[in-house]
Structure formats: structure tokens, C-alpha cells
């Protein structure tokens, strides 16, 4: 009986196609601990110790931690060491890995192969080859910053983010994290603005600390931890859906009988096949030095999340791109397709990327840690006010930084923060700021509140100074802010750079007031509180402690004068406002030409993404839905005729009549959509100078007609038998994982 049982179990797992995960092993053939192979494919300081001199290692340590430049001679030695290390691990090629404004990463591989003076083959990787490469930039988005025939672009090594080896089944390649700039020096990527914003914010924040008496601080860094949400569905289902394959979301799909209303998926048991996927994903990410900490089921069926330990924002952004890459590739190996779109399925929650953001100084202090008595922690209060000032004054551009066609489906729904930018601080901090505003800061008691959970094995827990508010786009959560409105597919570099620049702006304004009151370069506590009081009063409209999903908040926000850009085309147009974007120039993140080029790129991307979705819908309706419906309608008509001939009572005739009307509605809405597409894509509607107008027409007209077609198609889906329907239904996909 035992053998039979084990055989049944073996057959069961074989049927599920659970992929075996091969974890790294130690010299004794036993499974290695994570700590033993973490970052084993990263050329970090630990790897450099064995290959660089003490002086070179010291220089690289400073550059990697605080930024700086690498001279040609050091670059030559680092290149030689990196090549030796990479070749020892089996790498044959190298590439400069960069992040153009496509939402994906890019790379051009070159072999280490070279020839000596005698014509003999050798391996070579030089300092100049490490420092810079020259990919063809003509086919990458530039937003009109250059002509197509001006093809030259440069990738430059970013030494603050370590090189790493990417493995595939057929080879290994040394990846060099890089910036991407044009021939004339304009930033063509997402990494460069983030690096610039980090540098500017460090200077301004250090100045703030000096003015309030913290003279020992030499620099300030930002830390980020993105919580990455995504869906997983069976590959066999995804490959049968043209819309998922080409656009990332389902343009058709009737809501199943069960969705997420039972709330039984969130933090539920992870299915065995998904567990195997996570195990393999974590091994790959650990080898790449990505500190994945948490994994769990999300709210919607088929939806999951991974979250890392916090890192410096630049490396965290690189690691998030690696995570996205690995999620997709490992999912395929396990028979899945990972969906990173913000709203792949209608009727259930979409996916976001909660970017947890904080600041630390060179003394190792988290500047957003309020401690036990946050009202007395002047450092914390000063930076809190600086952040509020920056958010208050630059909320519209922050909203633009997370605008996309995919995110439009999330923002404002009861699953994601609204398109209104506000800040949630929690009850304790809100009282403290109100007390400072009223001049009674000494009367506020902000000690931690102890709550009794009423569970026998849990005594008491320290309640944080803030509760979690999932309806807020920018919420304080104890010692960091959580920018919850970022979309799941978005690179985090861009919104983080805009956030950094906004905080730089807020601190700049506070520093100006501090300098006016400073004596010998330091402001007294009383003067500091008076300045903070002014900021608290000025920024009160941006603070909201209630339900961000409610209509009452939308009404109140309008009364407060807060913007509500619910659609991407409207949100993006703030980038054309020089007054609203001047803080980006002041922080040295962008110049005017950069800003306008990014506006054009995002408008064009919005238009193209929407048109892809619309064209998928047209093709699926014409070639899949209508033929199946007409065939089924013909069967109903035949049954109705036969029933009439033999005088048999049957609903076939009424069904055929009703279904015929539904098919006609599909046809009419399809034709209306095709006519609108023709109007938009003909002539010069897609020309650079018409992007604003075209994007608004698509948002206000075309996408509504797409929803009309969707409604019509989803209606006929309810009539057609499952075995005839031409593509997998929602119930197959989101509940189809064993």
C-alpha cells in the first residue's frame, strides 16, 4: 500500500509538471546556505579584494558607496580583474547593460576574443572598453531630441552599481550597468536622472543637517525597497490569448462566477507549482545579489508579490529590473507566463509596485525614523517637513511620473490610490504637526501605544506611530514613505528621481529660511520650530488621513485645490508647464529639452500601447469571436427550425433571436471602433506635433469605444458553450494553477 501511495504521489507531481530546483551545493555535495552563494555572480567589493590592490580597493569602495569618477589607469586594472573573474566563472562575452526609455533594458554583447600582433587569438577586455561603448541610438526613443539619422549614442559604466554575470542554459555574459547618453550629452535613459537626483539631494540634505547643528554629516543617501506585484498564469492559456501575448492585458473577458470577493487568496497557501517557481526565482536572484526577502499570494486569484530588503536607490532600481527579467524567464521555465501589466484582468485587483523610500546620513541614521518621541526629534521633523513641502509644491509632476496606459486602469479604482497626490502621516504624527501649528508642541505625548491583541500566545506589541493606509498614494509607514501609486511594469528609476528632486526642492526652500535665522551657521531650536510651523501650515492641504477611495475625498480635494488627473494624457501635460517643472532643472536632473523630450516619449508610448490593445481587440473580434458566434447561431437556428417542424416546445428560437441581436451588436461596435482607428491613424495624427491632441482623442473617445466592444463581446461569451469559445476564459486563467 505504501509503494502504491508513493507511486500515486509521484504521478500526481509529474502531472503537475513541477520543475525540480537545483540549489547550489558546497564542497561536500550538500545544499549551500543562501549566505554562501548570495551575490556569487556579482563583481562586488568581496570579489575585488582578491584581484585589486588595497589602494585600488579603497578607491572603488568610495566610488561605489558615494559616487565619483574612475581614471583611465584604474579602469584598466578593474577591467582586467573583472575579465579574469568572469572568465573563471565561464563568461565569454560582456555587455553594457542600460535602461532606455522603453520600459525594458537593453544590451549589446561583445566577445572577449581579440588577436595579438602575431594574429593569435587571445581574450581581452580593456579600460576604454569598460568605460564606454557605442550602441546605435537611432531606434531608441528620443522625443525629438535628435533626428533619426543622428544614430550615435554612448553607454558609460556606472561604477556605483556592481558588474554581474547573467547565466543562460547556453552561456554566461558579464553585464556592466551603464548610463545611456546622446552624442551631445542628453540623457536617453532612466538611470542618469536618478544618479543626478541622488547627488543633488545629498548636497541639499547635508546642508540642512549642518544648519540644524549636525556638522559631522558628510553626505545623505536614499534607500528604496520596491514591492513587486504580478500575475502568473499557465503558459498554455497565455499562448492562446493574442491580447495577452501582444499587449499584456486581456481586452476581452467576462467576469467569472467567483473573483476575489471571498478574500481567500491573500496570504493564502502558495500552490506547489508556484512554490517551485519562487524557489528557482530566488536562487537566480540571490546569485545576482538581489536581496529578496518576502513572497506571498496577493489579493487577486493568480496574483503574487515579492519584496526585497532595502538598498541604495540606484542599485535597488537595477535590481528591480533584474527581478522583472528573472520573473519572466523563470516563469517560462516552469510552464507559466508572468504578467507584469498593471491590469491584465478586469474585475479583479491590478498590480502595483509600492516603492518604499527613505533617507539616511553618513552617520548611519535613518532620517525618517521618528524614534520614541518624534515631536522632540528635530532632525526627523525637519526632513518630514521638507518632504511635505516638496510633495505639496510638486504633486502634479509626481503624478505625471507614474502615468501610463496600464496605470490608468488602476488609479482611482478601489484597489489602488487615487490619481490625487496626498500624504498620509498617521494619527500620532498628524496630532504632533497640528500641535506645532497651534504652538503647543510641548503638550503632545507621542509615546508608543501598547495594544493587547487578546491572543493567548501573543502578549503585547508596540503599535507603530502610524497605521497603514492602503488608499494613500504617499503614506508614512513608521520610518519611510511608501509611494504606492507606481505601476507594476514601470522602472522605479524615474518616479524615484522625480521624488528625490521634489524633496530637494522642499529642503532648498527650508534651507533658505534656515540661513536667514542661522547664527554661526546653526539655527536655534526655537527658530527651527517656527520655520517648521510655517511649512506645516503651507502644506496642510496635501495631508489626508481618511479613505482615499471615497468620493468625499475627491470632492474635498477639489475644494483644497488639489489636482485630479485621472488619465495619462492630462497628467503628462504638466511636463509642458515650465513653472511646474523648474524644480527638476534646479536639481540638475533635467534641462528644458530633456523634459519636453520625455513628455513626447511618454505621449507616444501611451498612443502606441492603446493602439496595440485596440488592434488586438479588432483582430480577435473579427477572426475569433464573430466566426464562432455565427457558427453557434447557425446551430441555434437549425434547432429552432427542427423544433418547429416536429411541433416541439424549445427555447431555441428565442435564444437564436436574442443571440442574433447580441452578435449584431458586436459587429456594430466593432465597425465603430475600426472607423475611429482609421480617423486617428490617418494623416498626421501620429506626428510629433500632434501627440497631445491624438493622445486625448484616444483617451476620451477610442478607449471608450474599445470598452463598448468589450462589453458586447463579453455578453456573447456568456451564450457560447465553453468548448466552442475560441480563447481561454478568466476562470481558466486566474484559477487554472494547480
TrEMBL record:
<dbReference type="Pfam" id="PF00120">
    <property type="entry name" value="Gln-synt_C"/>
</dbReference>
<dbReference type="Pfam" id="PF12437">
    <property type="entry name" value="GSIII_N"/>
</dbReference>
<dbReference type="InterPro" id="IPR008147">
    <property type="entry name" value="Gln_synt_N"/>
</dbReference>
<dbReference type="Pfam" id="PF18318">
    <property type="entry name" value="Gln-synt_C-ter"/>
</dbReference>
<dbReference type="InterPro" id="IPR027303">
    <property type="entry name" value="Gln_synth_gly_rich_site"/>
</dbReference>
<comment type="similarity">
    <text>Belongs to the glutamine synthetase family.</text>
</comment>
<feature type="domain" description="GS beta-grasp">
    <location>
        <begin position="92"/>
        <end position="185"/>
    </location>
</feature>
<protein>
    <submittedName>
        <fullName>Glutamine synthetase type III</fullName>
    </submittedName>
</protein>
<dbReference type="InterPro" id="IPR014746">
    <property type="entry name" value="Gln_synth/guanido_kin_cat_dom"/>
</dbReference>
<dbReference type="GO" id="GO:0004356">
    <property type="term" value="F:glutamine synthetase activity"/>
</dbReference>
<dbReference type="InterPro" id="IPR040577">
    <property type="entry name" value="Gln-synt_C"/>
</dbReference>
<dbReference type="GO" id="GO:0006542">
    <property type="term" value="P:glutamine biosynthetic process"/>
</dbReference>
<dbReference type="InterPro" id="IPR022147">
    <property type="entry name" value="GSIII_N"/>
</dbReference>
<feature type="domain" description="GS catalytic">
    <location>
        <begin position="190"/>
        <end position="625"/>
    </location>
</feature>
<dbReference type="InterPro" id="IPR052725">
    <property type="entry name" value="GS_Type-3"/>
</dbReference>
<dbReference type="InterPro" id="IPR008146">
    <property type="entry name" value="Gln_synth_cat_dom"/>
</dbReference>
Amino acid at each position: 500500500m505504501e509503494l502504491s501511495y508513493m507511486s500515486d504521489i509521484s504521478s500526481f507531481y509529474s502531472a503537475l509538471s513541477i520543475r525540480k530546483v537545483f540549489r547550489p551545493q558546497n564542497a561536500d555535495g550538500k545544499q549551500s546556505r543562501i549566505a554562501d552563494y548570495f551575490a556569487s555572480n556579482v563583481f562586488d567589493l568581496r570579489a575585488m579584494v582578491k584581484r585589486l590592490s588595497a589602494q585600488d580597493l579603497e578607491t572603488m569602495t568610495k566610488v561605489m558607496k558615494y559616487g565619483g569618477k574612475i581614471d583611465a589607469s584604474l579602469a584598466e586594472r578593474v577591467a582586467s580583474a573583472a575579465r579574469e573573474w568572469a572568465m573563471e566563472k565561464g563568461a565569454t562575452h560582456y555587455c553594457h547593460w542600460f535602461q532606455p526609455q522603453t520600459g525594458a533594458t537593453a544590451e549589446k554583447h561583445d566577445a572577449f576574443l581579440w588577436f595579438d600582433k602575431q594574429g593569435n587569438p587571445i581574450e581581452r577586455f580593456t579600460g576604454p572598453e569598460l568605460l564606454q561603448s557605442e550602441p546605435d541610438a537611432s531606434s531608441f526613443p528620443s522625443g525629438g531630441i535628435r533626428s533619426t539619422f543622428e544614430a550615435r549614442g554612448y553607454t558609460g559604466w556606472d561604477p556605483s552599481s556592481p558588474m554581474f554575470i547573467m547565466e543562460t542554459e547556453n552561456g554566461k555574459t558579464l553585464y556592466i550597468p551603464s548610463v545611456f547618453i546622446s552624442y551631445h550629452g542628453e540623457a536617453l535613459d532612466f538611470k542618469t536622472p536618478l544618479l543626478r537626483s541622488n547627488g543633488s539631494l545629498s548636497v541639499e540634505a547635508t546642508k540642512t543637517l549642518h544648519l540644524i547643528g549636525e556638522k559631522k554629516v558628510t553626505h545623505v543617501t536614499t534607500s528604496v525597497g520596491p514591492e513587486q506585484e504580478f500575475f502568473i498564469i499557465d503558459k498554455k492559456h497565455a499562448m492562446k490569448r493574442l491580447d495577452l501575448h501582444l499587449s499584456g492585458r486581456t481586452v476581452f473577458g467576462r467576469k467569472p462566477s467567483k473573483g476575489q470577493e471571498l478574500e481567500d487568496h491573500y496570504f493564502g497557501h502558495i500552490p506547489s507549482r508556484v512554490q517551485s517557481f519562487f524557489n528557482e526565482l530566488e536562487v537566480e536572484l540571490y546569485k545576482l545579489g538581489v536581496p529578496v526577502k518576502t513572497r506571498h499570494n496577493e489579493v487577486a486569484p493568480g496574483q503574487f508579490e515579492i519584496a526585497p530588503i532595502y538598498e541604495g536607490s540606484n542599485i535597488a532600481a537595477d535590481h528591480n529590473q533584474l527581478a522583472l527579467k528573472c520573473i519572466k524567464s523563470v516563469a517560462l521555465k516552469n510552464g507559466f507566463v508572468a504578467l507584469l501589466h498593471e491590469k491584465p484582468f478586469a474585475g479583479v485587483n491590478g498590480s502595483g509596485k509600492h516603492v518604499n523610500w527613505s533617507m539616511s546620513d553618513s552617520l548611519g541614521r535613518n532620517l525618517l525614523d521618528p524614534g520614541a518621541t518624534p515631536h522632540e526629534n528635530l532632525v526627523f521633523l525637519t526632513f518630514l517637513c521638507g518632504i511635505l513641502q516638496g510633495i505639496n509644491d510638486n504633486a502634479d509632476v509626481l503624478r505625471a511620473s507614474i502615468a501610463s496606459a496600464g496605470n490608468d486602469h488602476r488609479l482611482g479604482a478601489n484597489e489602488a490610490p487615487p490619481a490625487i497626490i496626498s500624504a498620509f502621516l498617521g494619527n500620532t504624527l498628524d496630532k504632533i504637526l497640528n500641535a506645532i501649528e497651534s504652538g503647543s508642541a510641548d503638550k503632545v505625548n507621542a509615546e508608543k501605544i501598547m495594544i493587547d491583541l487578546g491572543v493567548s500566545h501573543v502578549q503585547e506589541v508596540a503599535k507603530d506611530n502610524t497605521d497603514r493606509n492602503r488608499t494613500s498614494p504617499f503614506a508614512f509607514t513608521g520610518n519611510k514613505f511608501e509611494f504606492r501609486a507606481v505601476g507594476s511594469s514601470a522602472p522605479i528609476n524615474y518616479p524615484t528621481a522625480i521624488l528625490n528632486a521634489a524633496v530637494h526642492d522642499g529642503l532648498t526652500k527650508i534651507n533658505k529660511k534656515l540661513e536667514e535665522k542661522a547664527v554661526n551657521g546653526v539655527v536655534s531650536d526655537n527658530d527651527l520650530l517656527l520655520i517648521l510651523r510655517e511649512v506645516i501650515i503651507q502644506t496642510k492641504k496635501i495631508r489626508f488621513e481618511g479613505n482615499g477611495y471615497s468620493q468625499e475625498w475627491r470632492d474635498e480635494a477639489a475644494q483644497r485645490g488639489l489636482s485630479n488627473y485621472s488619465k495619462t494624457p492630462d497628467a503628462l501635460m504638466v511636463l509642458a508647464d515650465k513653472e511646474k517643472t523648474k524644480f527638476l532643472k534646479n536639481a540638475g536632473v533635467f534641462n528644458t529639452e530633456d523634459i519636453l523630450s520625455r513628455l513626447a516619449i511618454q505621449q507616444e508610448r501611451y498612443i502606441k500601447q492603446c493602439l496595440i490593445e485596440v488592434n488586438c481587440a479588432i483582430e480577435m473580434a473579427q477572426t475569433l469571436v464573430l466566426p464562432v458566434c455565427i457558427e453557434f447561431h447557425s446551430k441555434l437556428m437549425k434547432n429552432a427550425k427542427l423544433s418547429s417542424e416536429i411541433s416541439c416546445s424549445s427555447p431555441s428560437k428565442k435564444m437564436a433571436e436574442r443571440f442574433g441581436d447580441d452578435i449584431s451588436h458586436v459587429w456594430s461596435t466593432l465597425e465603430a471602433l475600426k472607423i475611429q482607428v482609421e480617423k486617428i491613424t490617418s494623416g498626421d495624427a501620429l506626428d510629433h506635433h500632434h501627440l497631445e491632441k491624438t493622445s486625448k482623442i484616444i483617451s476620451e473617445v477610442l478607449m471608450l469605444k474599445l470598452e463598448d466592444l468589450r462589453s458586447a463581446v463579453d455578453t456573447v461569451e456568456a451564450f457560447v458553450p465553453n468548448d466552442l469559445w475560441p480563447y481561454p476564459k478568466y476562470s481558466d486563467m486566474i484559477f487554472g494553477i494547480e
